Amino acid sequence: MNNELKKTLKPVQLWGIIVGMVISGMYCGWNYALASTSPVGFIIAILIVTVFYTTFMFGYAELSTAIPHAGGPSEYASRSLGKFGGFIAGFSCLVEFLFATPAIALSIGAYIHFLIPSVPAVIAALIAYGIFVIINCLGIEAAAKVELIVTIVAIGGLLLFIGAGAPHVEMKNIFAGEILKGGFSGIFSAIPFAIWFYLAVEGGAMSAEECENPKKDIPKGFILGIATLVILAVGTFFISAGVSDASVLSSSDSPLPTALEGVYGVGLLSKVMSFIGLFGLVASLHGIIIGYSRQAFAMSRSGYLPKFLSRINSKGAPVYSIVVMSLIGMIFVLTGQTSVIIVISCFGAVALYIISMISLFILRNKEPNLNRPFKVVYPVVPAISLAIALLFLVALTVSNLSTVAWVVGAYAISIIYYYLYAKMQNSTAEPSIEEVDSEAV
């Protein structure tokens, strides 16, 4: 059975996938934080989250260049923590991505409904989801080209928004009312939505096997990607909060057009912003489909998931993983609960971040001679990243107790599944990269 991915990606395409996976977070989702904290409180949350992602991506670049594998975090954890650790990391990645995608699809539906009120948001979300599932089945080369185009358009839209809003920024909007609404609890509640600015940036690691020269291309794509996202996140929030009332932003499904309407009124500019906003949402929808399909593909190839999920078509696309995982995502679109879905996705992401940084520390001690084309400043940078990730876990748990039970239940079911099925299948799975390397030695 052919289950080898094609190596076609260049650094600019990897950058496009990384930024594209995340850029929808600039267009929607983050604004729900303003229901629980003030703009100043959210700025604090954004700063903490930005420091985390900056340090995390440097550590992640070390892992992904040393072990360029489609499984990404599941492969790093498997190599450092054993098969069970690899499974939990892979499951966390699927939780992050499979819940992020419905939230993005629902936002696409909201933007389409804003432009064409006669089209129900949920129906529009499902149709958009289906279209990009089909595009992903055409192979990574075609998918990456589409991703790069829509990402560039989406970046252009954010620059248009920043340019149109900058002359109308009023600092009183940012400092109005209670400066630290909700106190520390409000800031904790805002953290998941600050994470939404960057959520899924690590997904580029799942394309590592498809890079022409992963050991050189991955650091370039990762570092340029996180730099781009930091600039866009800060600019988007500052302009939005500076031209709008926080209470108006917090209740909008399409915050950027809403912000411009407050300045220019309902008209061509807000419609254009909504139209371009669709490109940002589409870029993330499309990019995250790439990410979760490669994760499912790699977990299947390693024996964690059914073998048919690692089959690829003539275009080199893991078509079964794309379709099956996407059908699961579509089920959650039907709930319509965008803000709850974002929180669940963040739980998966934070679990993944913690496991990945622990894996980095273990691999530094366990395999000191592993070829590392890119090395992070060790141990300071990964230690900062791990400490903040643990803070995120506390913040998420304390501020979302009603959602925690669902997350714990999902992990409990996944562990039962692992021991009843996946562990029994490992004996017949194809060897992982570390097993192949050890045999060669």
Automatic annotation (TrEMBL):
It holds the Pfam family AA_permease. Keywords: Membrane, Transmembrane, Transmembrane helix. It is a multi-pass membrane protein. One of its GO terms (cellular component) is membrane. It comes from the Bacteria. Residues 20-410 form the Amino acid permease/ SLC12A domain. It is found in: Membrane. Its main location: membrane. The chain crosses the membrane at residues 12-34, 40-63, 84-112, 118-139, 146-167, 179-201, 222-243, 263-292, 317-334, 340-364, 376-398, 404-421. One of its GO terms (biological process) is transmembrane transport. PANTHER family: AMINO ACID TRANSPORTER-RELATED, MEMBRANE PROTEIN. This is Putative amino acid permease YhdG.
